[in-house]
Design goal:
Blueprint: E1 3-12, E2 16-18, E3 22-24, E4 27-30, E5 36-39, E6 58-65, E7 74-77, E8 83-85, H1 92-102, H2 110-120, E9 124-127, E10 129-139, H3 146-158, E11 170-178, E12 186-189, H4 193-206, H5 209-223, E13 232-237, E14 244-250
Parallel strand pairs: 5-7
Antiparallel strand pairs: 1-4, 1-6, 2-3, 4-5, 6-7, 6-8, 9-13, 10-11, 11-12, 13-14
Helix pairs in contact: 4-5
Length: about 270
């Protein structure tokens, strides 16, 4: 039975091709009590613009427990019921409005999350790294895997007009340690939509794939994980493999490192609204 939920969007992953849904975006967020919820599937770019939501924006949507995804946080949204509620939460006073919701979820270590995964099926979490040591860039195929390519070609021939969906030709992985005596270090893929979008923006600006990838490293390691940032990772599992990946970064400035400010009014937040 469907229920209506109010969700603060915190995660949007890079779109993947889908024969049934055109493409899929895994969206995750937090309820008002700070618990996680995963909304899947969402064919985000094929929805009318009034259903488009940004990170740290409240939405209301009817959901029901996902019948094909056993992960406890996974719900199937009725996308036609999505209602976007106002502007994204601002970043004034060291992201106070965002932290009031996000940090209701106490940060964990990856070691603890894996224990919870085995115990009760936990598949989303918030991790506060002790140290982020690197962001590894690995070349990847420029083409989608064969089944996805076949789905794309079939839809081009027989389906509705399809929006361009290019594959990022690199993989980006964070290397970090947790505040846990059992931690021996982690290397985890990051699949935040903003990584892909930043790469394509920089490729257009620089005209060079390697330089564009290095710009991603500079932003996601050199800025988002800087010493004056209170960096956290939103993490989640891949359904098929049960492995953990980084879904997004929460990176408010540390208290006392910046002066409190009043944000400038903006109808459309930038990719990295700070």
């Amino acid at each position: 039975m469907a229920e209506r939920q109010r969700v603060l969007i915190t995660v949007k992953t890079y779109p993947l091709p889908s024969e049934k849904y055109l493409e899929l975006v895994c969206t995750a967020g937090m309820l008002e009590d700070g618990s996680f919820i995963r909304l899947y599937p969402v064919d985000y770019r094929y929805q009318p613009y009034w259903r488009w939501y940004s990170k740290y924006q409240w939405i209301e949507v009817e959901v029901e427990k996902h019948d094909k995804d056993p992960r406890k946080e996974s719900y199937r949204p009725r996308v036609e019921t999505i209602q976007v509620l106002g502007k994204p939460l601002d970043t004034a006073n060291c992201w106070a409005a965002r932290k009031a919701i996000v940090l209701k979820q106490l940060p964990a270590s990856m070691e603890t999350l894996r224990e919870l995964q085995e115990r009760d099926g936990t598949s989303l979490g918030l991790v506060k790294p002790r140290e982020v040591t690197d962001l590894i860039i690995e070349p990847d195929s420029e083409e989608w895997k064969l089944k996805w390519k076949a789905d794309i070609e079939q839809l081009r021939l027989f389906g509705p007009d399809r929006k361009p969906l290019e594959k990022v030709p690199f993989k980006f992985r964070y290397c970090f340690t947790c505040e846990d005596e059992r931690c021996k270090g982690h290397t985890m893929m990051i699949e935040d939509w903003e990584v892909g979008q930043l790469y394509w923006n920089q490729l257009k600006r620089l005209g060079n794939a390697e330089k564009a990838a290095e710009s991603v490293r500079k932003k996601f390691l050199g800025e988002l994980c800087r010493a004056d940032k209170d960096t956290h990772f939103f993490v989640g599992t891949v359904l098929k493999y049960r492995t953990w990946i980084v879904l997004g970064v929460f990176w408010p400035p540390k208290e006392g490192t910046v002066k409190a400010r009043t944000p400038r009014p903006s109808a459309t937040p930038s990719l990295f609204d700070t």
